[in-house]
């Protein structure tokens, strides 16, 4: 079963999913869960059960160690995506398209 907030990371330079990338999910100053992307670059479940309420959240992608593990450097030590949950009965999928010198995100399905 998928968590109400999920993510997917794609390495645009390599043209493949970004496996083994550490990510944390936050609401205000509280860490709600941590995860590591699977072989397909996805986190569909966090290390703790997740119930959401309306409000602002953020995903923090720990990209510097991930790039370093591949003998690559990154301009960004981390990528933070802030987003808003409006309807708690909806699923929020927040993908990250990543390269060493840029990134993009959008609300997925």
Helix and strand element order:
EEEEEEHEEEE
Mean pLDDT: 97
How many DSSP E strands?
A: 10
CATH architecture: Sandwich
Tally of separate helices: 1
**CATH class identity:** Mainly Beta
Written overview of the protein:
Helices cover 6% and strands 44% of the residues. It has 1 helix and 10 strands; from the N terminus they run ββββββαββββ. The longest helix is centred in the middle third of the chain and has 7 residues. The protein has one domain: Transthyretin/hydroxyisourate hydrolase domain (Immunoglobulin-like). The strands form 2 sheets. Strands 1, 2, 5, 8, 9 and 10 form a 6-stranded mixed beta sheet that branches. The model has no long low-confidence stretch (mean pLDDT 97).
Q: Short description, anyone?
A:
The protein is mainly beta.
Index terms:
mainly beta, 109 residues, 5-hydroxyisourate hydrolase, Immunoglobulin-like, 10 strands
Architecture blueprint of SSEs:
Elements: E1 5-11, E2 16-17, E3 22-27, E4 30-36, E5 42-43, E6 55-61, H1 63-69, E7 79-85, E8 92-93, E9 96-99, E10 102-105
Parallel strand pairs: 1-8, 1-9
Antiparallel strand pairs: 1-2, 1-5, 3-4, 3-6, 6-7, 9-10
GO molecular function, one term: hydroxyisourate hydrolase activity
Protein name: 5-hydroxyisourate hydrolase
Family: Belongs to the transthyretin family. 5-hydroxyisourate hydrolase subfamily.
């Amino acid at each position: 079963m998928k968590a109400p907030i999920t993510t997917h990371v794609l390495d645009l330079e390599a043209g493949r999913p970004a496996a083994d990338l550490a990510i944390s999910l936050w609401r205000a100053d509280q860490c709600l869960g941590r995860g590591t992307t699977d072989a397909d670059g996805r986190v569909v479940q966090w290390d703790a059960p997740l119930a959401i309420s309306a409000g602002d959240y953020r995903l923090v992608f720990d990209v510097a160690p991930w790039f370093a593990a591949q003998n690559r450097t990154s301009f960004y030590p981390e990528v933070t995506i802030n987003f808003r949950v409006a309807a708690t009965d909806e699923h929020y999928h927040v993908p990250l398209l990543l390269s060493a010198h840029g990134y993009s995100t959008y609300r997925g399905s």
